[in-house]
Amino acid sequence: MTTVIHSARLVDDGEVTDDAWVAFADGVVLRAGTGDEWRALPAGDAIDAAGAYLTPGFVDIHGHGGGGGTYDHGLDAIAAARAVHLARGTTRAVLSLVTASIDDLAAQVGMIADLSERDATILGTHLEGPFLDPGHKGAHTESLLRAPDEAAVARLVEAGRGTVRQVTLAPELPGGLAATAEFVAAGVAVAVGHTNATEAEASAAFDAGATLLTHAFNAMPGIHHRAPGPVVAAMRDERVTLELIADGIHVHPDVIALAFAGAPGRIALITDAMGAAGEPDGAYELGGLAVTVTDGVARLDEGGAIAGSTLTQDAALRLVVAGGLPLADAAAALTSVPARAIGLAGRYGSLRPGAAADAVLLDDALQVAGVWVDGARV
């Protein structure tokens, strides 16, 4: 059956198109256009958007959980977290895992690989650790951090059976550049993050194949006028996508605007959400570490470091648009840019014909009014 969403303001391909329609069939985008052309399509389900915004489904390439659960706590926790984010427009997600032993990570990666065969909204795994700088560990258990080696890389890649989408590592660690090349050769997007890298060390990682910067500005040296650091290296390299946590806490809104200006078309808005996303303040846990959430801000009980976020992608959209970013650019940072960053451009994050029929309907206040996955409303 054909489903048509019509009379929408379509936000896709970097522009907003009034009085637009999109037709879905067999789980993919069939056609798109403007005006009443949709009436000539075979009879099906016609949905009047009444002038609401229609965007591709959001793609989160870095998030740890929500709904009280984290992605390293098993199937029920994953289901609870995905339900929270799906309701807020995240139609596809890469499940991020915090630092653990190689044995534990391999088991978790294998479990997510199995799950992704049954649930196509799960795109695979992001390994945020254990190859991180202890001095920029954030909410990771320091005793489990380690330098990468060929055996560990091979073990994790093999466990994922093609579903390890991203790995965050500190390239200045011994073996860091070799591991970068090994992961890239296996089809994994490598992100520089939780790092003490200089601008030169970050650039060397990008030359070795790294194409992402994990939650830019967080868990890395900041920008200094005599020591630009990894953020400037990423901004100046057209091959690199910068992740940003746009919750107004991790990065000041003025700095978010600076990032979009410095790397246009290369900002991916992520959640980095932990289990408290969609839940009230209180006591939580992340990677075996105790976390307390107060006024929506998650911090480690020991040391007080920020421990992920309680963000959802629709809230990130509202924050950056309120800060002055054009809606079309903000929507791209939630859709086409993250999809491209993990090698899935055109398949997700787009409403062009042939793409997955994932869509989000937003009212004038950019609140989610409807979500579709593979052409079915959820």
From TrEMBL:
UniProt KW Lipid metabolism keyword? no
User: Which BP terms does GO give this entry?
Assistant: N-acetylglucosamine catabolic process
Q: Name one GO molecular function term.
A: metal ion binding
Residues binding substrate: 139, 218-219, 226, 250, 306-308
What cofactor is this protein dependent on? a divalent metal cation
The residues annotated as the active site are 272
Amidohydrolase-related domain location: 53-377
- Does the keyword Metal-binding belong to this entry? yes
Which residues are involved in binding Zn(2+)? 128, 194, 215
- Write down the superkingdom of origin: Bacteria
Q: Which keywords has UniProt assigned to this entry?
A: Carbohydrate metabolism, Hydrolase, Metal-binding
- What's this protein's name? N-acetylglucosamine 6-phosphate deacetylase
Q: Which organism was this protein described from?
A: Microbacterium lacticum
